[in-house]
Amino acid sequence: MKREPWSAFDLDRDQPTTLQSQLTERIRQAIQRGALSSGTMLPSTRELARELTIARNTVIAAYDRLLGEGYLESRPRSGIVVGEGIRSSDWPKASRTESNVGRRSSSCKFKFDVPLPKPFRPCQPDVELFPLSFWNRMRNRVLKRFGAGLLHYQSAFALGWPDLRYALAEYLKTNRGVQCQWQNIAITSGSQQALFLLGQLLVKRGSAVGCEDPGYEGARSAFAHAGAQLRALEVDEVGVVTPKNRDRLDFVYTTPSRQFPTGATLPVARRLALLDYIRRTGAWLIEDDYDSEFRYSRPPLPSLLSLDTTGQVIYMGTMSKVLLPTLRIGYLVLPESLVTPFQSLRLVLDDHGPMIDQATLAEFIKQGGFFSHIRRCRKAYSARLEVFVQTTKQLKLPLNFLFTDGGMNQTGLFHDPSVDDHTVSKALALADLDIPPLSQYRHNKKSDQPGLVFGFAAHSPTVIRTALKTVSQVFEKLGLFPGSR
Ligand SMILES: Cc1ncc(COP(=O)(O)O)c(C=O)c1O
């Protein structure tokens, strides 16, 4: 008895690819090989499902796909047949290797790691503290409430889900002293996208953009990509030094609440001096307030924007530190004149960000999940900071820690200014630690003040103690302790 080609379709339930994709691929290959020729009638979906002992829906979906691709046709009274004019000779004969590659890719066994941050990679929140089940409940709630509307294109919301923009405006009013209308808030895919878009919008080829030195590399690269000429802004023990009047800048990027990476907080007088500088020069200023929620013993200082009267300050925040980095939700408070141009640019980029997550976040804030999560993190991180400080003191590490009150990182400067912090960081990496050198954050990647930047927030007290002991052992081997050379 003649065996039909489909009785030889070998579907493997243990493969990572779905049965539906496997079946689609087997039929496609059979047509290409000529085993199923033009006009051949395929079994009904019910018959094939029975033959292969798979669900009928799986066969329906595979047929649908091949109908869409033109391999199959639906004929009245005959059912599903192989498409007219499709001949096996139309396909180039695959070489042995090609067909092997095809097989391999159709049964892809690609495995990939999803790594967790090693101690002490900076700027990492503890994602284990995140109330995922509460979040999922909020997600289900908004999906139910807004139904299909939440699933369609929503170009009218290029600046973000209105409820979220409103909730953030309220949050900024009470917590950061920012008096803004919700219509001035733009939701972005993390603050990195905000920096990129602002670069595209405001930076012209050759514009002079002042960035803190040391400072956040992501800002420098966004502006450099837009054609800016980067200027290094000096950072002292309290933060960015106000540029001189003769240093004409078109743009200033700064982290006044917690200078990145030193952790310094810019006092009010210096904030006012900075605002005075932009008033006199007409420069734009971006205030990056990336982790101001985490101040442990004192309330945070009001934001720079709350002191501004120029209308040239753009405030930027992110959910990456306070909630989860993979959420990719950041936000801007835009001056009135930039709202429409920013919206137009966002439409060019991707229409709008993911609405389900934005609506979920709005509900999460409204129902109090956001504030209780901040409280939980503050408590855990301040206890971890305490363990970090005590352990570094016990181990007498040859670093001067700035020990700033807050944030997620602590920067230590080597007592010995001749230390090459890149070399030390590489040696630490061999011991499975991720502690970047301070010079990495410098404009020229060199530093006369070598140091290391430690992120402590994502790790339990036990991990902090153990990892710091490893740091001490690596230092010992490198002869970094006084008298050990
Ligand atoms: C100072 C600073 N600003 C902005 C960001 C970017 O955050 P996002 O994840 O929102 O792009 C980071 C990330 O580490 C940062 O350190």
What features would you describe in this structure?
Helix 2 packs across helix 3 and helix 5 (132-146) packs across helix 12 (355-366). The protein has 15 helices and 13 strands. It has 485 residues and is an alpha/beta fold. The N and C termini lie far apart (86 Å). The chain is globular, with a radius of gyration of 29 Å. The strands form 3 sheets. The protein has an 8-stranded mixed sheet with strand order 3-10-9-8-7-4-5-6, sandwiched between helices. It has helices spanning 19-33, 45-52, 56-69, 96-106, 132-146, 162-176, 190-202, 217-225, 268-281, 304-307, 336-350, 355-366, 369-395, 421-430, 461-478, and strands at 72-75, 79-82, 185-188, 208-213, 229-236, 239-240, 251-254, 284-288, 313-318, 330-333, 399-401, 409-414, 451-455. The chain is 41% helix and 13% strand.
List keywords for this structure.
single chain, 485 residues, alpha/beta, eight-stranded mixed beta sheet, three-stranded antiparallel beta sheet, 15 helices, 13 strands, binds pyridoxal-5'-phosphate
